[in-house]
Amino acid sequence: MKPSIWKWSTRTVVTIGIGAALYGATSWIGISIGMNTQLRPSIALLAIFGALFGPVVGFIAGFIGHVINDFITNGTVWWGWALGSGITAAFMGLIYLAKGFNPQDGEIRKAHILQFIVYGVIGIFAALAFSYLFDIYVMGEPGDKVVVQAITAGLANTAVFFILGIPAVWAYAKRNRNDTNLSVDS
């Protein structure tokens, strides 16, 4: 049985720390695809931590990880984008709440993958819409610049989610499946 998303333990805190550290340390790796925008494989970590540990852990790990990355790479935090990383991971983590979804026990169905895709894509674009509005209304950035960034980042994040994130969660669940055709001969 999966733990509640509201049950906090030492494992939960350690998981958040590991997720944030991994996301923060790997977010600088990417291929530039536009103005202040990169194709970043680390987006898959948001999908993995969200799906395996739930939306709360995903949000906190994504947010803190983005803050860490901003401090390391720029020395300045872009709070709207940091919150956007948390929002993305939280949406992806909604699959954790799906009935019968338990990758730790190898329980994953095609319907779960479809739900995961819907949650992930909505999360990516909802987070980017939030970051876009935050940059314009709080940070005073020009709208035309930010819209190009948001669309480019959305397409890149969706590609990484499909190519790395979904297969990683699916493979993890398949690896944990107990019902194999192997038997022990005596």
Automatic annotation (TrEMBL):
<keyword id="KW-0812">Transmembrane</keyword>
<dbReference type="GO" id="GO:0016020">
    <property type="term" value="C:membrane"/>
</dbReference>
<feature type="transmembrane region" description="Helical">
    <location>
        <begin position="113"/>
        <end position="134"/>
    </location>
</feature>
<dbReference type="Pfam" id="PF07155">
    <property type="entry name" value="ECF-ribofla_trS"/>
</dbReference>
<keyword id="KW-1133">Transmembrane helix</keyword>
<keyword id="KW-0472">Membrane</keyword>
<feature type="transmembrane region" description="Helical">
    <location>
        <begin position="78"/>
        <end position="101"/>
    </location>
</feature>
<protein>
    <submittedName>
        <fullName>ECF-type riboflavin transporter substrate-binding protein</fullName>
    </submittedName>
</protein>
<feature type="transmembrane region" description="Helical">
    <location>
        <begin position="43"/>
        <end position="66"/>
    </location>
</feature>
<dbReference type="InterPro" id="IPR009825">
    <property type="entry name" value="ECF_substrate-spec-like"/>
</dbReference>
<feature type="transmembrane region" description="Helical">
    <location>
        <begin position="12"/>
        <end position="31"/>
    </location>
</feature>
<feature type="transmembrane region" description="Helical">
    <location>
        <begin position="146"/>
        <end position="173"/>
    </location>
</feature>
